[in-house]
Design a protein that fits this description.
Blueprint (H helix, E strand, L loop, with lengths): L2 E2 L2 H11 L12 H7 L3 E8 L2 E8 L2 H11 L5 H4 E7 L6 E4 L6 H9 L5 H7 L15 E4 L3
Parallel strand pairs: 3-4
Antiparallel strand pairs: 1-2, 2-3, 5-6
């Protein structure tokens, strides 16, 4: 079976193969998610009746966010295999601060607990002097879990 690097190629292959692949149309939105996450060489292919999503992420956080998007699809457990390599393991990823965010809200979103705001502050000592002084547009390191 082939690889698809665009939604148009994916739709054409789905039309040709009929129902031999799991609901590939349902997963076509993942191309845009992967593009937004800057996952390089993102492609969908078929193997063993499942969709294999492959590519290369700079950070684990990008891969985790792609997983989150995959899990929004009903039946993903039976349909999808993820094969995304991660280049850097020294940090989990980077986050650009949005208006209204705090270190606690960022920690809750990425590390599971608001109290981990201290970990984010420590990972960003080179760019933060005060944990209560973050600004929209700042790029922060998200440490590993």
């Amino acid at each position: 079976m082939g690889k698809w690097s665009s939604n148009a190629q994916l739709r054409q292959t789905v039309a040709e193969l009929g129902n031999s692949l799991p609901a590939t149309e349902e997963y076509a939105d993942l191309h845009e998610v992967a593009r937004q996450l800057d996952i390089k060489n993102f492609a969908l292919s078929a193997a063993g009746g499942r969709l294999v999503l492959s590519g290369a992420a700079q950070y684990q956080l990008q891969k985790d966010l792609l997983w989150r998007a995959i899990k929004e699809h009903d039946g993903w457990e039976r349909d999808v295999v993820l094969d995304i390599s991660v280049a850097r393991s020294d940090i989990r990823g980077l986050h650009t601060v949005a208006a209204g965010e705090t270190l606690a809200s960022i920690a809750r979103a990425y590390l599971g607990r608001a109290s981990r705001e201290v970990d984010i502050f420590e990972a960003n000592r080179d760019r933060l002097n005060d944990p209560d002084q973050i600004f929209p547009g700042q790029q922060l390191v998200i440490p590993n879990r």
